[in-house]
Amino acid sequence: MPAEKNGRDGGVQSLQRAFELLEHLADTGGEASLSELATLSGLPMPTIHRLIRTLVDLGYVRQNTNRRYALGARLIRLGENASMQFGAWARPLLAELVEEVGETANLAVLERDEVVYVAQVPSKHSMRMFTEVGRRLLPHGTGVGKAMLAHLPAEEVRSLLDRTGMPAYTEHTFTDPDALAVELSRIASQGYALDEAEQELGVRCVAVAVPGAPVPAAVSVSGPSGRLTAEAVAHIAPAVQRVADALGASLSRAPLSV
Questions:
Q1: Which of these, 2, 63, 174, 221, is most buried using a 10 Å CB contact count?
Q2: Per the database record, which ranges form the IclR-ED domain (predicted)?
Q3: What is the pLDDT of residues 230-254, one digit of tens each?
Q4: Residue 2 falls within a domain, yes or no?
């Protein structure tokens, strides 16, 4: 059997190609046919078939009843652990944010149509926040979720909302997709999202998407509405933007250690 060729960075070529196929599956929304993968990757069909069969055998890809291929369940554990490592790696930046603004800072990612909080540094106030690491919420009802959705294609957002629905967490939660679309456009223009008691009454949140993150991610500062006044938000929003930018820049310079 011939030896595997080395990739341009010294890696085994078939391993590189297998990961590229997983990335292509993710880019198509998680499902594609062999011919679609061949078009996206530029690889010959026999190579595609061999790599996909190996990934299916390992559980990283599954074949659906319609004979199309989708991301497999075995990736879930890897993704969840990587998200938590991402959170641990980001904690020093969140701590700097808390020191600057005096309120609780959070990091969340979008995972399987849900917002997952992967890191938090609490404020020193006796009344603290409201959510915890590992909590899952639907994105339409959170500041971090709206910040992430504002940077996704409109059709992708609509598909997500069709899958999840838009239940109300409070009387202030967006429950109409058209109204949310207007809100997301405003968020994209101003550079940050506000959660105005949409997830929990009496709580306001300022959130900014992390640019260049490998998965949708956002940094937020949260606190009681009585402390996070309009004047406070005007001071906090630029600070959250700086930390999100710093986190994105760090991600672009070096890979996460997982």
A1: 221
A2: 74-253
A3: 999 999 999 999 999 999 888 765 4
A4: no
Domain that holds residue 148: 76-253
Q: How confident is the model at residue 26 (pLDDT cuts 50, 70, 90)?
A: confident
Q: Determine, yes or no, domain membership for 1.
A: no
Residue 36: give its domain's CATH number. 1.10.10.10
| Range among 39-48, 130-139, 223-232 with highest mean pLDDT value | 223-232
Residues 169 and 249 in one domain: yes
Model confidence, pTM: 0.71
Residues 108-117: what's their mean pLDDT?
A: 90
Q: Among candidates 241, 194, 248, which has minimal Cα distance to 217?
A: 248
Q: Do 54 and 170 reside in the same domain of the chain?
A: no
- Count of structural domains within the chain: 2
pLDDT tens digit sequence for 175-206: 999 999 999 999 999 999 999 999 999 999 99
Regarding whether 97 and 150 lie in a shared domain, the answer is yes
Do residues 68 and 86 both lie within one domain?
no
Quick: pLDDT tens for 61-87.
Answer: 888 888 898 877 777 666 666 656 666
Mean pLDDT of the chain: 85
What token pair was written down for 45? 């069909």
